[in-house]
Design a protein that fits this description.
It is built from eight helices and 15 strands. The strands form three sheets. Strands 6, 7, 8, 9, 12 and 13 form a six-stranded antiparallel beta sheet that branches. It has a five-stranded mixed beta sheet with strand order 1-2-3-4-5. A four-stranded antiparallel beta sheet has the order 11-10-14-15, with no helix packed on it. Helix 1 packs antiparallel against helix 2. The longest helix has 44 residues.
Length: 354
């Protein structure tokens, strides 16, 4: 657009200032020729400077944006850098409002646990032969924990109210410590059994009333349940036995995070199991009945495809995931079925707790 406009300006300037034609004598005066040359040189110089500035502006801004994004995604793994939710409302809003959640993540200097899981997935897709012995694999237990991967930093820490919370799924513990304790982060990471300042909780325990200091509900907490099919004798391997579809149905409990999720994941084996992006597994039917603690019941049954573009449902060549429940609050009871499709056909998985 600017080039075309500049060309028009040049033609207009040439017409106006250069080669003045004397109609009567049909000759070009020397004075007009001189004025045209001077004007043309000045005009070209101005346009060149303008174009140079425009190009600088165009190339400089995206680079600055890239640097900002890159520095966030590659933030150093300082355990003191974490998300901080001062109120229950802000924590609930993180679950319920995607725009709010994205704003919090983008404006907080921290390295989320999702970075670790992304690295594990990258190593799996690249078929790294040393993957099984890589220390990073100890965190694979968190892989399918939805929003929890954004809530926690890479040391599995988050600040809720006046407490720093550590989610330790490997040891089936949730630890809390007052943020006012000197060296609280060091203590909860390196000496979580120090009962003088650290409190340990079962992952089944709903902790929001504890960390945000309000009187909670007295109903029971449902226990974590999972049905998983991934062994050769469970009928989930393909014909050549070098591929399988890992099928899972889980009620996840992590103290500050609770979820119902079904997943089918394609895998292939060389020395160990890696991601297989060519299976296109599916969840053809899903039904649940659950009751919230001191609240009402909810029922749904059908094809997850009917949820459309909801963040609860996703599927591609590697896996299908359906997560109809994800909350700060634990359930009192649940009864869930899922028909999961992949190698070995369709399997019906079931979990319940009353």
């Amino acid at each position: 657009m600017k080039t075309r406009k500049s060309s028009v300006m040049i033609r207009y300037a040439a017409k106006k200032a250069g080669f003045k034609t004397n109609v009567r004598e049909n000759i070009v005066t020397a004075q007009s020729m001189y004025m045209y040359k001077v004007f043309f040189v000045v005009l070209i110089s101005v346009i060149s400077l303008g174009c140079q500035k425009t190009l600088d502006d165009i190339t400089e801004q995206p680079l600055e944006q890239y640097k900002r994004v890159s520095s966030h995604k590659n933030a150093d793994n300082d355990p003191r850098k974490m998300l901080k939710f001062e109120t229950l409302d802000s924590y609930e809003n993180f679950f319920e409002n995607a725009d709010f959640a994205n704003q919090i993540k983008e404006t907080t200097d921290y390295s989320p646990l999702r970075n670790t899981i992304d690295e594990i997935n990258h190593l799996s897709e690249s078929e790294d032969p040393e993957l099984e012995n890589n220390p990073i694999m100890k965190d694979a237990i968190y892989e399918n924990y939805g929003l929890l991967l954004d809530i926690l930093n890479q040391k599995k820490l988050v600040q809720l109210g006046n407490y720093i919370v550590r989610v330790d799924l490997a040891n089936d513990k949730i630890y809390t410590i007052s943020r006012t304790i000197p060296n609280a982060v060091d203590i909860i990471l390196n000496n979580p059994t120090d009962e003088s300042v650290v409190t340990s909780h079962s992952p089944n325990t709903e902790l929001v009333s504890y960390v945000f200091n309000f009187i909670g509900c007295n109903d029971r907490w449902a226990n974590k349940r999972q049905e998983k099919l991934d062994e050769s004798n469970q009928g989930v391997h393909c014909t050549k036995n070098r591929k399988r579809t890992k099928k899972e149905l889980t009620y996840q409990s992590a103290g500050i995070y609770f979820s119902i999720v079904g997943e089918a994941k394609g895998q292939k084996r060389t020395l160990i199991w890696f991601s297989d992006n060519s299976q296109y597994p599916d969840i053809s039917y899903f039904s649940y009945t659950f009751k919230r603690r001191c609240g009402g019941s909810e029922y749904w049954g059908g094809d997850p495809d009917s949820w459309g573009n909801s963040i609860a449902w996703s599927h591609d060549g590697n896996k299908a995931t359906f997560r109809p429940y994800q909350s700060t609050y634990a359930l009192k009871e649940f009864n869930v079925y899922a028909n999961i499709v992949g190698c070995g056909g369709t399997h019906t998985l079931h979990i319940e707790d009353y």
